[in-house]
Structure formats: C-alpha cells, structure tokens
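Sync notes, pocket subgroup
Present: LS, DG
LS reminded everyone that the earlier model was apo-only. Rerun requested with biotin included. Inputs:
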Amino acid sequence: MILYDPDIIQQHLQTNRFVREIHVYRSVTSTNTVAKRLADAGAPSGTLVLAEKQTTGKGRMGREWDSPEGVGLWFSLIFRPKSVRIDYRLLPLILSEEIALALRDHSGVRFAVKWPNDIHYSGKKVCGILCESSYVGQKLDYAVAGIGMNVNQGESDFPETLRKTATSLREVLGKKVDRLALLAAILNNFESRFCGENANGNHLTHWRSLCAELGSPITVRFGNQSYSGIFHDISEMGELILRERNGNTHKFLSGEATIVKELK
Ligand code: BTN
C-alpha cells in the first residue's frame, strides 16, 4: 500500500484538531529537516510530514536512521507551545507512552518503552523518536518530533549491523501490518492526549508500567563516562534517576545520555 496521498491519509484520521496540515513525499533527506524548514516558514502546530523513504534519516546522538522505501512509518510532527501546552522536556516520554499504547490497542501485543524515547519488544527496538527544538531567545518557538517505526521489514531487510538490536512489527506479530491504519491509530491517540480533556496535564500515567528497565540494573553512557546502578525512577522533568550501589544518585536528561546495557 502506498502511503503518500494526503487525502487518503486524511480519510483514515478521526482527528481534526491535532493534525492541521499533511505533507507527504516519496523521498526526502529527513522528515525532521523538512518539518523544521516548514516550521521556520510558519507552518502550524500539528503539521505532519511523512515520507516513504529517507535518504539520510537522523537518529539520536548523531546516528543514522535506516529508512528504506515502503516498509516503515517515517514521519515528523510540529508542536508549538501555544497550541500544545505540555512540559516540553517530557515530550519524548509522552510520545513513547502514547505510541506504545496505540501499538498495544492496535495489535494486542504489549510493547515496552525504553528511556528516553524508544519502543522495544523483547529487547529489540521497533520505534525511535528524535525531538528537536527551536528557540527564540529563551523561549521555545517549536519542537519537531520525528518518529521512525519499523513496520514491514523482514529480518534480512535490516543492515547486518542492526539485526541483533532492531526488529519490525511484522517480525513481532508474524504478519504484515497496514501502515495507514497504524499511523491513524497513533495520530488518533495523540489527538486525545494533546487535544482531549486532560490535554494540559504532564501526567505519565502509564510510562512507568510500560518501562521494562525500571527497578533493574542498567549502565548509562553520558559523554565519555559510564554509570552503573539501579534505574530508580524518572523525575518530574523526565530525567532518568540512577542509584549507584554506594547510594549516590545521578540524574540524566534525555538527549544527553543513553542506556547502553541492561544487566539481567
Ligand atoms: C533514534 O532512536 O535514534 C531516533 C530515530 C528517529 C527516526 C525518525 S524517522 C522520522 C524522523 N526523521 C528523521 O530523520 N528521524 C526521525
């Protein structure tokens, strides 16, 4: 199924408040780059940028994001603080929570969130999120949230280097997934989270229960250093709170640290 017709996408959405504009492309460098360009030119909150393929998809920490044609959901959304009133430090966690819930409702399978903003199944990554912000002076002008979901790749479609750490919904569920229906399910969840009755709260009602590492030993990489301890909790700002064996605690901000090892 080809995804790149905005009218067809629109027909699948129940949302009419959150998604304001839809831009679809067969191939772009990165939907985040395109979304930032549109946002700089004044595009509204709720602008969706989606591509069948990215030639230089971007991951966290300067990594590349493999985005082959026709098998994934590669899209970005513009958020403006006047329209979506949340604590933007929590945006990655809120998005990962909503995506994991949409996946659960859509497929009946429980997916885990991994701090700060990944979705995993059995320790392998299905979805990653890259949030990029733009400020005017000290004030947030907009955030672009880029979402990359491995949907219909077979194992051999992944580059050799990713096969141990990445998987797709098709691999997990044992069948092909309708990408359009899945995209609609995710965006409809975003609509109720960001435009519904409790839209202004910064609650992460389900995040902790969806996080497999919480309460477990982990190693966090921060710059050139590694810290090992128990994943104690997340703070109100979405920081990872690590408690070392000697009782010391460290807080890590999303965007600056990454969990490199989960000790079984
Ligand atoms: C990560 O886990 O490292 C984040 C991956 C984010 C990938 C998505 S795909 C759509 C959007 N455009 C990009 O270039 N990156 C994000």
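DG: Residues 217 and 230 are 4 Å apart (CA to CA).
LS: The pocket of biotin is lined by residues 30-32, 54, 57-60, 63, 65, 67, 74-76, 118, 128-130, 146-148 (CB under 6 Å).
Action: DG to write up.
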